[in-house]
Amino acid sequence: MPLADLSGQALARERLLNMIAREQVPQTLLFAGPEGVGKNLAARMFAQALSCRKRVGADACGHCPACIQVERRLYPDLLIIAAEKQQIKIDQVAEIREFISFAPLVGERRIVIIEDAHKLNPVAANALLKTLEEPSPTVLFILLSHRHSLLLATILSRCLLLPFVSLPETAVAEILRGLDLTSEFGEVTAAGMAEAAAWSGGSMGRALFFLEEENRSWFNDFIGRFSRLPQATPVEVLDLSETAAQFKEREVLFFIMRSFLHDVLLTAQGLEGAKEDAMRISTPSWRAAVQAFAALPEPRIMSIRRQLLAIEEAQGINVNIQLAFAALFAAVAAGSSDTV
Predict the structure, then answer these.
(1) DSSP letter for each residue of 204-271
(2) pLDDT attached to residue 318
(3) Phi then psi dihedrals of residue 111, to 5 deg
(4) Which residues have C-beta within 8 Å of that of residue 146, sequence separation ≥ 6?
(5) CATH fold of 3-163, please?
(6) Residue 340's pLDDT is what?
(7) pTM higher than 0.85, yes or no?
(8) 183, 152 in Cβ contact below 8 A?
């Protein structure tokens, strides 16, 4: 797909096309922004445009052999690295170093895309840094992250940051209406699309996840139970922690919990109606749960949020996620989350 088809990211799209048109492509790019807003797709589109032999202006034609190979992830000068069990490890950086040690086979450069770059473990991050300190003119690194603040400052200093933004709920709904969803989701009603867009938090990835009514129902129930934690019994606390720990889509789970506490803080501060501080999720049941939780003292809400972020960052380190959730939820119920 050409960059012209990248929806909702006009600034990023134009900057990437200008880099190609002016032949001023940096050696290390960082695509930073929320989850599921098109960073991965944009990275592959950019790789396609750079590798295309029949460009239309600065953009990919989308039809030549190089374009097709990039789209199918079969292009010999493209390497895509993804986290394994919540970490990017030293052996994957070794794979990168071996890949870039060879000259490009068919194109002008070798392109390395690192998904969720913030998941580099310390050893891997330091090894990557050494690689970035010795750049080759025939290598392009594209790092993708929705939590780029977790990257080493020395890695950040070697990247040109390209910001990606959350999509407006209306844009998510419009994109969904333009997709052929029948083969994967069956018949999707207009109401189902609207509700998925409302739950998405501006992310197409999450919108597709929430097209499944089962997923929307699960999170409606979970957020309702989470909002009642201040009045929960020990049995209810343990039950909810087990439910959270067993949920497989953990990135979505943490996003929803972070968004809930974000909206709770806005409500507690009386800012939920401000345009620049709009609530992330907009369903009626969500607003009711937010209102209930926002009755807690603001310092306590902020403490809960800090502890949740600490648990999210501890993923991939040797941590028992169920015990971590149980400790947090028990502290919320006891009114002393500072002790988690």
Answers:
(1) HHHHHHHTSHHHHHHHHHHHHHHHTGGG--HHHHHHHHHHHHH-S-HHHHHHHHHHHHHHHHHHHTT-
(2) 66
(3) -120, 125
(4) 32, 33, 34, 35, 39, 116, 118
(5) Rossmann fold (3.40.50)
(6) 40
(7) no
(8) no
pLDDT at 107 over 70: yes
CA 275 and chain centroid, separation: 23
Of residues 225, 221, 198, the one with CA closest to residue 211: 198
User: Where in the chain are the domains?
Assistant: 3-163, 167-211, 228-339
Where is average pLDDT lowest: 40-54, 114-128, 174-188, 300-314?
174-188
Calpha distance 60→303 (Å, rounded): 48
Distance between CA 231 and CA 293 in Å, rounded? Answer: 11
Choose among 228, 222, 294: nearest CA to 262.
294
Per residue in 145-196, pLDDT (tens digit) is 998 999 999 999 999 999 999 888 888 988 888 888 888 888 888 888 999 9
User: Which of 146, 128, 130, 167 lies closest to 30, judged by CA?
Assistant: 146
Q: What is the pLDDT of residue 272?
A: 57
CB atoms within 10 A of CB 234: 12
Which residues partner with 113 through β-bridges? 80, 142
